[in-house]
Amino acid sequence: MTTPRIHLPAPLPLTKIALVAAIAVVSLSGATAIVNRGLPTFGSARGAAIPLRAGAEKVTGEEVAVLTDAPNVPPPITRTHATKVIVNLEVIEKPMRLADSVQYTMWTFGGSVPGRFIRVREGDLVEFHLKNAANSTMPHNIDLHAVTGPGGGAKASLTVPGGESVFSFTAMNPGLFVYHCATSPVPMHMANGMYGMILVEPKEGLPAVDHEYYVMQSEFYTKGKYGEHGMQMLDMDKGIDEKPTYVVFNGSVGSMTGDRALQAKVGDRVRLFVGNAGPNLTSSFHVIGEIFDNVYSEGGSTITGHNVQTTSIPAGGSAIVEFGVEQPGDLIMVDHAIFRAFNKGTLGVLRVTGEENRNVFAAIKGIGVTAKGGE
Ligand SMILES: [Cu+2]
What we know:
Layout: H1 16-37, E1 59-64, E2 82-99, E3 102-109, E4 118-121, E5 125-132, E6 143-144, E7 164-170, E8 175-180, H2 186-191, E9 195-201, E10 211-220, E11 230-232, H3 236-240, E12 246-249, E13 262-265, E14 269-276, E15 283-288, E16 292-296, E17 305-308, E18 310-313, E19 317-324, E20 329-335, H4 339-343, E21 347-353
Parallel strand pairs: 1-2, 2-5, 3-11, 4-9, 10-14, 13-21
Antiparallel strand pairs: 2-3, 5-7, 6-8, 8-9, 10-12, 14-19, 15-18, 15-20, 16-17, 16-19, 20-21
The structure holds copper (II) ion.
């Protein structure tokens, strides 16, 4: 099966000529060059390797962004021009399910953890409206990693309960970006569920796939042990020690298992937008029984690897993974720091239905094999 490929301009390579010239400047001018001209840089020409993007594209028209709760993703953008996109997001504090018979008062962007998924196009002018529900106990704000500007919008978006703030930014860099609350104490706001993702789709768009899903890993630090029933409170000491009680996908244990499993059919191409809110841990994201055909590591706009088994996602970072599904069965998404998967909740299912292909995989003999030859 062929897999989707994306065609984006590759970064300009360092030419040997530029390298030799740069070394010559350093060795001939020595300290004078450093004092008078600033530190020498290794680019083939000024501005060529590092683009300055401001005002790169004309903005026409206006629309309101469609936002979705995990694991859903807004539809691909079909526009071929930049537009003004209005994003309306409200912070809501409310008790939610963290695991069976375990509740936690989550602070949410839009009523869910992770926060609602935002999808815009490279070059769009985003007018961001952040509301804070009247019954909130705290002021909140938002730092979007897609923003070029002070605090990622944090200072401009500080909003008291019952209030609304508005700021705008141009989504200049394509990629998959984390957003989070950055109100003091920041670790507390993040540990309580204040994070989500914004996709800045490249101008050229992403290759068509059959399913796109939103998966975000994060940690919860509770006073009670894992699975202890009832309303749980934040344990700041566990947070400081980086010893989470729960490590979960999409805000709770079992968010994508059983009836809530993600779905695909044999022959489908699947794209996962995977984020890691932390607040502390790096994720070793892996899908048991599948291999990533493409990985956009760290959520950038370029495919950086093929045929990848596990991809590392830092706290406050992301990755886009793509794969074709060739065999029916349950594919298990985990953090391959494996105690987290089996003892702290980092486990989700992508259920693939369809015709078995015994060329792809065949169980032949053994205690795990049924009479019909399946598992
Ligand atoms: Cu907050």
